Amino acid sequence: MRVVMVGAECAPFAKVGGLGDFIQGLARALAATGVEVQVLLPYYRGLLPEPFVSRLEPLDVAVSIPLDGAALECTCWRLRAEGLDCVLIDPAGDWFRRPHVYGEPDDGLRFALFARAADALLRRPGWRPDIIHCHDWQSAQLPALQWAVTDAGEPPVRVCLTLHNLAHQGLIEPAVLARLGVDVGTLLGPGPLDDPAAPGRANLLRGAIHCADFVNTVSPRYAWEVLHTGQGMGLQGVLQAHVDKFGGILNGIDDALWDPRTDPLIPVHYGPDSLSLKARNGEALRRRLGLRARAAPILAVVSRLDAQKGVELILGGIDSALALGCQVVLLGAAPDAAVAARFAAKREALADCPDAHLELAFDEGLAHLIYAGADMILVPSRYEPCGLTQLIAMRYGTVPLVRRVGGLADTVVDANHSDRPVGERNGYLFEAQTTEAVHAVLGRAAWLWRHHPDHFDRLRDNGMRADHGWRRPAARYLDLYRGLLGA
Ligand code: ADP
Ligand code: GLC
């Protein structure tokens, strides 16, 4: 079986958040079962880490797509590294020669170009896969293109769509698609890309939900929430209409890459059988970030600083944690200027505090050290399709404190309030989106850390020993692909 993943991120080549981890982890896990998997990404010139640039092999398959009545040539590069087989699509011009993966004013056109080129490549002889697996709006044009134009004499390609974040749907002007020679008349007015909430614009994600053979979100609970709790962000109607081809599959993490026994980015290796060594990473973290040496739990936040992640509750949680005698480490990047300013002000206010450090950046190495060195991690999301930081934290013996929502609710079992056996309890949950609720949950966790460290270690141990690897979810995706192919 040949599967092609098409998306905007794949770690370690391009990562902004969990989408990068997801495509990396699922592709590696499927490849390990013998599936032929390829990942299609844009070639982000200037962002691809240097060691990988020298490993690019030019591919002898030029793809040309229409743009404004002329032909736009796209070079394709192959990158085989880190257990991944990627094809990087490189349209002529500066479309992907930008300082960021996302956030450019012409993102709609940039990713429409990428998806159009991916579609053209995957129709070339020898390139047709059995399954095209698309992710989020950046590749969401593909299911519609495959639906609109079938290649005569070829077996149909089956298309899956995974929804990682409904906040971004790819709302673009039909004129943008028309510039790319897309048959807008078939897709709009009325057609699958029509969005009653955005008349006159094309909604790529909506079209993809309509046209894909299977659609899923990344946890069962979020799949239910988007249908029934107002979290569908305008897409609940189209999802309900297609509920027979819709489901939730819980994400995994790559437990070979996220492993405190071997992680090259942390100073002291440890595992569930040598948990006491974890404290030495805490000391290293304090030294690196200038926190004073103290017998206090370290609360971490590692997050995109975005409204989704509960900006107010993160800021309130920092104050609560300090008031409760914890130390606090935050690592986060805020794409929105107003949110960035609020965290910069907080960092300023805490500049002389020996118990807090806010690092407002994206830093993969520091993230690993924080997972290894912290005692608890706070994830107070407003909504969370799955969430990987709580899974990674658990693998590193760091106890998650999370809002009971989406994938957080599917993966964290409360230490005190649960009907599940003690051996399955791994963290703390809270419900209300209030700073009081965050304060209460921090109080429960800090109390256990201080007064019953052996019980706290039990939570760490339960998290570390649980299987959150990709094997099980990859087997579910494989079953899904087989079902679609009638195999
Ligand atoms: P999302 O995809 O919504 O951002 P996830 O929890 O699924 O949330 O995944 C976040 C991923 O991004 C994790 O691998 C986390 O370690 C990483 N991450 C988030 N912010 C940063 C940062 N500032 N520096 C390094 N890694 C980060
Ligand atoms: C998205 C979601 C996050 C999920 C990740 C990977 O970015 O916000 O919850 O874990 O995708 O699926």
UniProtKB/TrEMBL annotation:
Organism domain of life: Bacteria
A GO biological process held by the record: glycogen biosynthetic process
EC number: 2.4.1.21
SUPFAM superfamilies: UDP-Glycosyltransferase/glycogen phosphorylase
Any one GO molecular-function label of the UniProt entry: alpha-1,4-glucan glucosyltransferase (ADP-glucose donor) activity
InterPro entries: Glyco_trans_1, GS/SS, Starch_synth_cat_dom
Residues where ADP-alpha-D-glucose binds: K15
Reactions catalysed according to its record: [(1->4)-alpha-D-glucosyl](n) + ADP-alpha-D-glucose = [(1->4)-alpha-D-glucosyl](n+1) + ADP + H(+)
Keyword terms: Glycogen biosynthesis, Glycosyltransferase, Transferase
Biochemical pathway: Glycan biosynthesis; glycogen biosynthesis
Keyword flag Glycosyltransferase: yes
Family the entry assigns: Belongs to the glycosyltransferase 1 family. Bacterial/plant glycogen synthase subfamily.
Function per UniProt: Synthesizes alpha-1,4-glucan chains using ADP-glucose.
Protein name: Glycogen synthase
Source species taxonomy: Bacteria, Pseudomonadati, Pseudomonadota, Gammaproteobacteria, Chromatiales
